[in-house]
Write a structure and sequence with these properties.
The structure holds 2 protein chains of 2 kinds.
Chain A lengths: L3 E12 L2 E13 L4 E5 L6 H8 L7 E6 L2 E2 L7 E4 L11 H12 L4 H11 L18 H14 L4 E5 L7 H18 L2 E6 L2 H7 L2 E5 L6 E6 L14 H13 L8
Parallel strand pairs in A: 3-8, 3-9, 6-7, 7-8
Antiparallel strand pairs in A: 1-2, 1-4, 4-5, 9-10
Helix pairs in contact in A: 2-3, 2-4, 3-4, 6-7
Chain B lengths: L1 H4 L2 H20 L10 H10 L1 H35 L1 H14 L4 H12 L3 H25 L3 H9 L4 H37 L6 H10 L3 H29 L1 H8 L3
Helix pairs in contact in B: 3-11, 4-5, 4-7, 4-9, 4-10, 6-7, 6-9, 7-9, 9-10, 9-11, 10-11, 11-12
The chains are: A alpha/beta, B mainly alpha.
Chain lengths: ~260, ~260
């Protein structure tokens, strides 16, 4: 298991109107087995942070450590799950899940399929192994995409607004489902989201990023007991935490 | 049965055209030698069926071999162009230029260079058909979802693996569009090449029929060419179903 540390990480892009500063000295850490959310407004650079972690973009300054060692492109410990499920229509559900093991895990094709087959029940997809992605509901597609992410066999799951494209009811449903299986599996998760309730419901800790250039505005422990269920949403502490995060994000400031 | 039902409108249109043609050529003053009625085209064609068959086979072979060359060329080239911006910039003008060559002028030249055998026909068919295939493939690669590319990159897949697992399958719908445009050119190109010089083939058959004023046999050969193209066109759909069964299924359901 790998501990992730970011120390003073900055990133800017050369845009048409000069330098565009996206991340400004971001420091954060993720312990093994911890569920950490990064909460911020749209366009604050959350996804840029992911590009740095996955090695797609280099950081301008600062250090990124995994298990105390600098991140090496191509050998990073992250499995990325995009917002759009990116399930390939030419592969079955099993084939899509196996892709994670085959490409990232370096398994042979048959090993990858065996690994995927083991994973499907965890994600409630065992009956849909031979279905095509378009035959699944939106919620099932996201579960399949998460299964593919887990199949990569990396230490840390990077979930990039995984439920952002779903309708509100399906989203809540999946959040509760994810909480349930996370209790069992205890993956190390970094979740990027702009959904405050999602962050409170699922996380051990939340980092709040401000608008561009993003800095860490707040680091908040979520001490709510686990397992968290639908009842957790009615907990007065839940509302208080939600309020604290929204305040840190200046939500409502323009109308006050 | 539903499949057959969908053919009814097309068959009706063809029947209507044949009736108009038949009436015009029997009732007007054009003369049945200049414009033979479809009934006469059919009976003359039937009478000469063994010769038509003997000439159809070489044409079909040229189309098949030309297409095989065209497909291989388009695939290899598409990979090179997709792989490297520099290659793409260097070759694109030449490739587009190749499509402006007037085939009517080029066909006799190719025969002068390569003789009366199979080679000039294959080359001409390939020249005329590779471009829609290439464009279809390139546009198809470009249509690959950005997130899919990012996903492959974060999983550490190299260029080749990404091409094989994501870019090629993504390009297939667009490739088949190009293929359908291509096949409609293929037979015409073979005929052109034969017209410029051949021993056997529908092109040379038409030419000699024309030279002996057998307009009925010319038209019979034309109809066979049309049927050949229709058959090839239908074949692309069969092939598409075989290669990408998921495509038709995913379109049947609104999601």
């Amino acid at each position: 298991m790998t501990r992730i540390e970011l120390e003073g990480v900055s990133k800017s892009f050369d845009g048409r109107e000069g330098k565009l500063e996206v991340l400004d000295e971001i420091s954060l850490s993720v312990q093994p087995g911890e569920f950490v959310s990064i909460l911020g407004p749209s366009g604050c650079g959350k996804s840029t942070l992911f590009s740095l972690l996955t090695g797609i973009e280099p950081a301008d300054a600062g250090t990124l450590l995994a298990g105390g060692e600098p991140l090496v492109a191509g050998r990073q410990p992250f499995a990325w799950m995009p917002q759009d499920d990116v399930l390939f229509p030419w592969r079955t559900v099993l084939g899509n899940v196996a892709l994670g093991a085959e490409v990232a895990g370096g398994c042979s094709r048959s090993q990858a399929r065996a690994r995927a087959l083991e994973l499907l029940p965890t994600f409630g997809l065992e009956e849909f192994a031979d279905s095509r992605p378009f035959q699944l509901s939106g919620g099932m597609r996201q579960r399949a995409a998460l299964a593919r992410t887990v199949a990569q066999g990396h230490d840390v799951l990077l979930l990039d607004e995984p439920f952002g494209a779903l309708d509100a009811l399906t989203r809540t449903d999946l959040q509760l489902w994810l909480e349930q299986i996370w209790e069992r599996e205890r993956w190390t998760v970094v979740l990027i989201t702009h959904d405050v309730r999602e962050a409170v419901l699922l996380s051990d800790r939340v980092y709040v990023l401000g608008p561009r250039p993003a800095t860490v505005r707040l680091e908040l422990e979520i001490p709510l007991p686990r397992p968290r269920t639908l009842e957790t949403l009615a907990d007065p502490r839940f509302a208080a935490l939600e309020h604290e995060l929204l305040t840190a994000l200046d939500v409502g400031a323009t109308t006050a | 049965m539903r499949q057959l039902g969908r053919l009814v409108p097309a068959l009706l249109v063809i029947a209507l055209l044949l009736i108009v043609w038949q009436l015009y050529s029997t009732l007007s003053a054009v003369g049945s030698d200049l414009l033979p009625a479809p009934s006469r085209v059919a009976s003359a064609g039937w009478a000469d069926r063994s010769s038509l068959w003997d000439n159809l086979l070489p044409t079909a072979r040229e189309v098949a071999l030309g297409f095989a060359l065209s497909l291989s060329f388009a695939f290899v080239l598409s990979i090179l162009l997709d792989r490297s911006q520099a290659v793409r910039r260097a070759l694109t003008p030449v490739l587009i230029g190749s499509q402006t060559l007037p085939i009517i002028v080029l066909a006799p030249l190719v025969v002068i260079w390569f003789g009366f055998g199979l080679t000039p026909k294959i080359l001409l068919v390939a020249l005329v058909t590779f471009f829609p295939l290439l464009v279809g493939l390139l546009e198809g690669y470009a249509s690959t979802a950005r997130d899919a590319m990012t996903l492959m990159e974060t999983m550490g897949a190299g260029w080749w693996k990404t091409w094989r697992l994501v870019r090629l399958p993504s390009a297939l719908p667009s490739f088949f569009t190009g293929l359908r445009i291509s096949v409609t050119y293929a037979v015409v190109a073979a005929i052109f090449a034969e017209y410029a010089g051949a021993e056997l083939g529908l092109g040379i058959y038409m030419q000699s029929a024309k030279n002996s004023f057998r307009t009925d046999l010319v038209l019979a050969a034309v109809i066979i060419c049309a049927l050949l193209t229709l058959a090839l066109y239908a074949l692309t759909f069969a092939l598409q179903r075989l290669v990408m069964p998921w495509y038709a299924q995913s379109r049947e359901r609104p999601s």
